[in-house]
Amino acid sequence: MVSPDRPGAGVVWARVEEGFHVGSRKGVFLGYIDRQPGGSFDAFDGRSRLVGRFEALTAAMAAVTNGQPPQDAEITLEQVRVPAPRRVEDGNRS
Known about the structure:
This protein is 11% helix and 37% strand. With 94 residues, it is mainly β. A five-stranded antiparallel β-sheet has the order 1-2-3-4-5, with helices on one face. Strands 6-7 form a two-stranded antiparallel sheet. A hairpin with a 5-residue loop joins β3 and β4. The protein is elongated and about 50 Å long.
């Protein structure tokens, strides 16, 4: 179990498309990260203000999560698969 006062606790990152990630905490938009052609990551806060440019995705995530460049903030990545919605026909689930 993760401590709720640990940096980054409760933050969810979604990869919207290749190279573009959006962060939120408890449904509140925190900001986004956009991979640049050279491979670096530009991190933006919830008001689309540049937080910084980072070589690692996790460093960019920490910067957006903390609202400032990371200071040894630990962030781990894990893939979560969301099942596709099921089709509903005539009120019966299939």
